[in-house]
Amino acid sequence: xxxxxxxxxxxxxxxxxxxxxxxxxxxxxxxxxxxxxxxxxxxxxxxxxxxxxxxxxxxxxxxxxxxxxxxxxxxxxxxxxxxxxxxxxxxxxxxxxxxxxxxxxxxxxxxxxxxxxxxxxxxxxxxxxxxxxxxxxxxxxxxxxxxxxxxxxxxxxxxxxxxxxxxxxxxxxxxxxxxxxxxxxxxxxxxxxxxxxxxxxxxxxxxxxxxxxxxxxxxxxxxxxxxxxxxxxxxxxxxxxxxxxxxxxxxxxxxxxxxxxxxxxxxxxxxxxxxxxxxxxxxxxxxxxxxxxxxxxxxxxxxxxxxxxxxxxxxxxxxxxxxxxxxxxxxxxxxxxxxxxxxxxxxxxxxxxxxxxxxxxxxxxxxxxxxxxxxxxxxxxxxxxxxxxxxxx
Length: 393
Known about the structure:
This protein is α/β, with parallel strands linked by helices.
């Protein structure tokens, strides 16, 4: 089978979003070179916590990439940047429009070096509007998108302990999608392409249900807690929680039989419109179901619902979810090496195979390349640029 040419990506972004975008491209076979500051790297290398002496974020997001470190004030900067941009299919930057222009990393400047370039800038708030030049750190975008639940701890307000920022990660995924479409357009003869995304826009899109409901109906999307007795969470006798979802008629009938619920409850419901009934309005159901669920332990209900094929979900911790048989079968993590030690990193959840790939299951890779040391590939990459005639011998 003829090999597919690798997409060549120059990632000059700092912090999460650009690294998430290029991590997705690495997983899809791209050759990604990080052009980094020799002092701080891409901004992720110094963030706690550390795994075997390397920042967790760097290990998770930059495994499988190459690193070239060069100071912007170096006399070699202009020539090296030009050569790198000419080598690349894609350049990713991550800064406010005004900052990108000031540093000579805007679209017009870089496309002047490569007229077939796909240029991607992931900024905080986008390319237009009164916020476009405002700085942003991860949580800023989520807070301004109305996403972050707040609690009071020791007299001070703070985001809920369980909350993790959404916009920074989702902006990287959106950027990767945009890059792939831009490459398709360029390869169709449309020339250089621009891809723009922002952390705040992605945080807003995360709430597409509430945005649509509020825009048109003036109310938020229904909360899960308000859906009804048949899409609800119940406690087991050993204090664990299980979400049950027998909302289709056949599942509801099976659920009623399993729990020995009143016979006339089997026909309760309206399935004509959507094929689903969440149990809203049947206020007598929830306490009865809760009492029965509380009589048996977590393991019993897991086994019972599994065997009956009832839609349900045990409330797992992240650690429990990673180590489920499903997590292992599909490969949610892969192994990499950091300073001679084996560590695990998340797999990008995309599986692609050709029709003639056979019947092998689509499983995430079991191993990925190590995250690069800062500047690890300087000599190797400069030699490559020399071979291609992009820098002088």
